[in-house]
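All the exercises in this workshop are built on plain-text protein records. Instead of coordinates, the fold is spelled out as a row of discrete tokens. Once this layout is familiar, the rest of the handout is easier to follow. The record below serves as our worked example for the rest of this section.
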Amino acid sequence: MAGQGLSLHVATLLTGLLECLGFAGVLFGWASLVFVFKTEHYFKELCEPNAGLLSNATEQADCKGQDERFSLIFTLASFMNNFMTFPTGYIFDRFKTTVARLIAIFFYTSATLIIAFTSVDSALLLFLAMPTLTVGGILFLITNLQIGNLFGKHRSTIITLYNGAFDSSSAVFLIIKLLYEQGISIRASFLFLSACSVWHVGRTFLLMPRGHIPYPLPPTYSYGLCSEFGTRKEEKKTAECENVELQSKEVFSPKEESQDPGQQHELRSFQSCVLSRRFIWHFIWLSVIQLWHYLFIGTLNSLLTNLAGGDRVQVSAYINAFAITQFFGVLCAPWNGLLMDYLKQKYQKKTGKTGTSASAAALCSAVPSLALTSLLCLGFALCASVPVLSLQYATFILQVVSRSFLYGGNAAFLTLAFPSEHFGKLFGLVMALSAIVSLLQFPIFTLIKGPLQNDPFYVNVTLVLATLLTFVHPILVYLECRAQKESPSSNL
């Protein structure tokens, strides 16, 4: 029976990884899909002849309006990617796994069918399809993250791996682009994605729980193929009822929770967490770095077209290179978690000597991760700002590593810096607020294409300076940690 259970767990893990890798975050391969849409002449009517351009770039003429339309679609879709984290998380918590996954399948299938049957004349349907596709993908990710609970001490590694697979799924649109260049229509590709819904439905009922996977995992817990009725059903209900309490205790050990009562009282107030300097600077840190990534992905096709002088062959090659680097996000993501876990254990071993609390030591382990993420983003921003086409290979590498570090570091910091009972609310809030900031990508793009006459220099300088501002966050956290070491009785 144990062998059967292990086989089921492994099957759930591998199929979940495949689901995240093939479906959850395809939006971020947008540059590859835009190339196909442009080849199909979507929104071509927005292009205007411009005799001032080079003769070999007449096909692109003045396509500012077309680029803005694609940028707006990505802006709305990426906004939904973050903003809907909070309501979709609520759906998962309230209605459990099966209902959440059926909603995800409905959204995802509807979106792929809309894209499949969209034509040049009905291209405006992309404004509906892409955000819907994003919401379905987010729900796939959320319902799969709980699979880490099946593997005990490897839980964090699996969760990080799934987040990396989410990033790497952007390569799906590269595959669609390559198939398109080999004669496979975009309709055929998206009809295939729609047909995969049969696999999603089968996995929902055979390899996923009806409710939530509890942590720690009870010895009698079963789900999917091994689920039973009668007394086992009652045990499952009990385990699910206790899930929230168990998860809230998972982040901190008993030693870490034994802080002085004053600190506990202060931190347990959700309002005090939101209004704290620590949360506000974390929001700024996340929003600025995320804005860079969204702006870069949303405008990449236009950027490469300008740098390549309208040479579609070069643009296609660089878009392929970008999509390929995105695929390696699944390999980059776990390193940030490993770094934080190593430093956390190292600092907590010294707590007895320094007199600091274990939770303060855990918070200190986040400082190198925060600083390294800001440094990677700065390098990515500087490379992206230099108008040299060949340098964009380095930009692609730094972008995927920085993005992989960003979201893992965001979740890890919130678990270390605030009470675990507020984690879900704080995570949803910071993602929703950062989504509002990400809407700036469209006016920024319009500014570059309009008043700045396609010269992003001043915008890039401003955003690089904003990136330097993100270093304030790890510095302030470091100062808090140092103050705690000097005066262990002080509150963090």
User: Anything to note?
Assistant: The mean pLDDT is 82. The chain has two domains: 1-250, 251-492.
